[in-house]
Specification:
Number of helices: 4
Distance between the termini: 104 Å
Number of strands: 0
Mean pLDDT: 91
Strand content: under 5%
Number of domains: 2
Shape: elongated
């Protein structure tokens, strides 16, 4: 029953990731990680003896301890990556805000110059004497 549950979980994860990709709710660079996790869960669900072998090889007492350790490491990696992504996004937002401010100032200068030229052209005192 546990093998069936692991296989079902892996299939559900892959379907969820593909659905989110198709709806453009998840970017490809993140989807790859989740698809790899889904494939790993599927392989461990089909061949549970691989988990036992890894548990003994890495010196863990129980397979659950290995899975929890891997899950914690994965979550730490995801948190670190998302922090880096957020820092990059904040820097890009700051740079774009500065660029918009410079462009707004340029537009205001051009509009002021245009208004001054328009005012000079419409001034009747500048016309020819009759």
């Amino acid at each position: 029953m546990m093998v069936f549950g692991a296989i079902l979980l892996a299939i559900a994860l892959v379907v969820a990731v593909v659905t989110m990709l198709l709806r453009r709710q998840l970017r490809e660079k993140y989807a790859v990680l989740w698809l790899i996790i889904g494939a790993a869960v599927l392989v461990l669900g089909i061949f549970p003896q691989l988990l036992m072998w890894a548990t003994v090889s890495l010196g863990f007492q129980l397979p659950a301890n290995l899975l929890f350790t891997l899950a914690i490491l994965l979550l730490l990696g995801v948190a670190l990556h998302l922090s880096w992504e957020q820092s990059q996004a904040e820097e890009e937002i700051r740079r774009l805000a500065e660029e918009v401010a410079v462009l707004r100032e340029s537009v205001e200068r051009i509009e002021a110059a245009f208004d001054a030229v328009s005012a000079d052209d419409s001034d009747p005192s500048d016309g020819p004497d009759r």
